[in-house]
Design a protein that fits this description.
Helices cover 32% and strands 25% of the residues. It contains 11 helices and 14 strands.
Length: 374
C-alpha cells in the first residue's frame, strides 16, 4: 500500500509536469497515512485525494479493516528538492551514487526466475477472484512464496507453496484452505512443475488472518525490494523504486539493467545474465558496467559486455528518453513486481503511455549482430 501511494503521487505530478523531481515516502498504519518527501514540480495536486483514492482502489473501504480510504487521517510533509542534488541532475548526471542490478534467465517465458514469477501469479489470481466477488470473504492483504527444486540451474519441481490471505471473521480455516488450494494454487501453478500430492502446501498457516494491511503491520515505502525484483535470485544494490522519479538511478538504472539483461537472454547469447551498473552522483556515464552470465554465455562475458555497452546508452538522461520515463507509468509497478510484466500501451491520465517499456525485446537483433550470432 505504501508503495502504491508513493507511486500514485509520483504519477499525478508527472501527469501535470513531466519534469517533476519527486522523492515521496509513505507510512501507513491503523487509520493513518503519512506522506513526506522532497519535490520540485510546476503542478499542484491534492495529495490527500490521491492517497484516499489509492487506498480505496486497493480495497480498504471499511473502517472494520483498520483503515478506510474515506475516513482515515492523511498527513503530508513536503519540501523542495535539495538544490545540491539538482546541480548534478540538471546537467544530466545521476541523482545519486550506487549500484543497480538487472537479471534475466530462461526459466519462464517472462525470462524471470521461476519461483518469484509463480509467486506473483498466485497473488494476482487471488486479487482477481476477490475483485470479481467470487470469494466475498477475502480481504485485500495477501502474500505468497514458492519453493522450487533445481537440477543445476534448471527448475524441476515445486516443492513448497505458501499462500496467505486476509479474510473476514466468519469464514472457517478449513474452508479457506480447501478453496484457496483448489481455486488458486492448483489452477495457477503449472502442472509440469506442480503436483499437489507431492508438494508441501501451507494456506494461512497460522490458522487466522483477520487483522491485516496497515491494521496488522505498519507499512513503509520501499520495504519490499526483493519481491519487487527477482525474489532473491541475483544481487540487489539496495535502492528501492516507488515514489522516485527517474532521475534517481535507483529506479531508472535498475530498469535499464533489466532491459539489457533480458535482451541478452532473448538474443540467445546466454541463458542467465546479470548486469550491474554503478554511478557517481552528478556524473552521467556509469563508472562501471559489469556483465555476468554465470558460465552460460555462448561467447566470453567481456564480449557480451562490449555488445551491451554498444546497444544500450546507460546515461540517466538517455535511459529516461529511451524508456519514456517522464510519463505517468509507475502506479502499476507497485504491485505484482516491477519485472516479468508485459510491455503494453494503455491510456492513463488522458494520454497513451507504454507500461513496463523495460520489458521490450527491442535490442535483440543489435546484440546478435554485434556478437556475430546470426
Amino acid at each position: 500500500m505504501a508503495d502504491q501511494i508513493s507511486d500514485a503521487v509520483l504519477d499525478h505530478m508527472l501527469a501535470g509536469d513531466p519534469k517533476s523531481r519527486v522523492a515521496c515516502e509513505t507510512l501507513v498504519t491503523t487509520g493513518l497515512a503519512l506522506v513526506a518527501g522532497e519535490v520540485t514540480t510546476e503542478t499542484q495536486i491534492e495529495i490527500g485525494d490521491v492517497v484516499r483514492e489509492t487506498i480505496l482502489d486497493i480495497g480498504y473501504d471499511d473502517s472494520r479493516y483498520g483503515i478506510d480510504g474515506q475516513t482515515c487521517s492523511v498527513l503530508t510533509a513536503m519540501d523542495r528538492q535539495s538544490p545540491d542534488i539538482a546541480m548534478g541532475v540538471d546537467t544530466g548526471g545521476a541523482g545519486d551514487q550506487g549500484m543497480m542490478f538487472g537479471f534475466a534467465c530462461d526459466e519462464t517465458e517472462e525470462l524471470m526466475p521461476a519461483p518469484i514469477m509463480y509467486a506473483h501469479h498466485l497473488v494476482r489470481a487471488l486479487a482477481d477472484v476477490r475483485k470479481e466477488g467470487r470469494l466475498p470473504w477475502l480481504r485485500p492483504d495477501s502474500k505468497s512464496q514458492v519453493t522450487m527444486e533445481y537440477d543445476g540451474t534448471r527448475p524441476v519441481r515445486i516443492s513448497a507453496v505458501v499462500l496467505s490471505s486476509q479474510h473476514d471473521d466468519e469464514v472457517t480455516t478449513g474452508e479457506i484452505r480447501e478453496v484457496l488450494q483448489k481455486e488458486i494454487i492448483e489452477e495457477t501453478l503449472p502442472s509440469k512443475f506442480f503436483d499437489p500430492s507431492k508438494a508441501s502446501i501451507h494456506v494461512n498457516p497460522t490458522g487466522r488472518f483477520v487483522r491485516g494491511g496497515p491494521h496488522g503491520d505498519v507499512g513503509l515505502t520501499g520495504r519490499k525490494v526483493i519481491v519487487d525484483t527477482y525474489g532473491g535470485t541475483g544481487r540487489h544494490g539496495g535502492g528501492a523504486f516507488s515514489g522516485k522519479d527517474s532521475t534517481k538511478v535507483d529506479r531508472s538504472a535498475a530498469y535499464a539493467s533489466r532491459w539489457a539483461a533480458k535482451n541478452v537472454v532473448a538474443s540467445k547469447a546466454a541463458t542467465r545474465c546479470e548486469i550491474q551498473l554503478a554511478y557517481a552522483i552528478g556524473v552521467a556515464d556509469p563508472v562501471s558496467v559489469w556483465v555476468d552470465t554465470f558460465g552460460t554465455g555462448v561467447v566470453p562475458d567481456a564480449e557480451i559486455s562490449k555488445a551491451v555497452e554498444k546497444a544500450f546508452d546507460f546515461r540517466p538522461a538517455s535511459i529516461i528518453n529511451d524508456l519514456q520515463l517522464r510519463t505517468p507509468i509507475f502506479g502499476p509497478t507497485a504491485a505484482y513486481g516491477h519485472f516479468g510484466r508485459r510491455a503494453e500501451k494503455v491510456e492513463r491520465f488522458g494520454r497513451e503511455v507504454t507500461l513496463f517499456p523495460w520489458e521490450e525485446l527491442n535490442r535483440v537483433d543489435e546484440l546478435r549482430a554485434a556478437l556475430k550470432l546470426d
